[in-house]
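Collaborator request, handled under Task 6.
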Amino acid sequence: MKQTTTTGDQAPTGGMSAKTRRGALIAAIFLMATSAIGPGFITQTATFTTKLGSAFAFAILASILIDFVVQLNIWRIVTLTKMRASDIANAAIPGTGYVLAILVIVGGLFFNIGNIGGAGLGLNALLGLDAKLGGSISALIAIGIFLSHRAGVAIDRLIVVAGIAMIILTVYVAFVSQPPVGDALYQTFLPSTIDFATITTIVGGTVGGYITYSGAHRLLDKGTVGIENLGAVNRAALSGIAVTGVMRYVLFLAILGVVASGVVIDVSGKGANPAAQAFQAAAGDVGLRIFGAVLWFAAITSVIGAAYTSVSFVTVFKPDISERGRNIATVIFIAVSLFFYVIITTPPAQMLVFVGGLNGLILPIGLSIFIYAAWARSDLMGGYRYPRWLLILGALTCALTWYMGYKSIGPIFALLTAA
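Structure tokens returned to the collaborator:
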């Protein structure tokens, strides 16, 4: 079976220095983290915390546990096979790689429309710019990065800096909002309400669709593959999950503090921006500016992550595409996303919630293929004996995501027609 050739910023695994490998792992961690904590998740968190209160903590916990199983399996399998997700799928079940690629690319396109909308909302809160103008400017910045001759280095540096800034700013707002931490911790494990549509949407916004493969494909492009790198890759996956888990919970607490104080947050109006309202209620105009910065950092890195990862699936249709060719395809992908963002009339916040749900419906399809590959096709991994406990957890998680998708498909698509 021919394996996919990785792109030009790959370093040969055998000659990789400790510093280079560390840089590759950090880049993968933050690409996964910033993709998982994008504008969709921020908006979803504000919307569902307003709706469910402390009980939303259970959905956060569920997303972290599902994230743990999904990412450990995906990163491990991609690392061991040295192949992209679509090529693994084709090798395991012929033809499924093309189906997976189409689903991820289409889901990534919808997600990127929402990401550009999130960037517009961010600049609106930060600088007062019209949301459409702010989204357009942000998309052009992302296009400029991919047109650069040092696109790989620029991407890695931007996502690390933006990720750190997001964490610091959100921790500050969580401290100021003074949330009911005790009740939140209690309902993390014993929720008063369980809403499957909410869990599916938040899972889709944090690990569904393209997000599942973002960090793994970045490792592949950097050449951090093979059984000799497996230990480091596992540690990186766990670190990424820890970073995203802490960030998700801190963001939830920041908004919960506002909701618990009795502030009414509008989540249904045409111009509603629930997360902005929460940050402003917590810290005044300074909080609104902080929200703008957090949302813009989250959005611009997610625009880059969604475009980069979605286009990485194009290689299943054109295996010999060059790095420059992929960058051009990525620019086109962002431009198409921008075009649809400009003409679509669905409010940005509403679109961000919907695309999370859509990607949550895509997740079980790809995960099913990967679990089958791990269970039945050890030859793709050089005969590596896959840990049975991880396989069992993967199969159970897969069944759970199918069930949640079945229960949630109606409510998720209803979001597009909600007032």
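The cover message to the collaborator said: "The mean pLDDT is 83. The chain is about 75% helix and 0% strand. Please let us know whether this matches your experimental observations."
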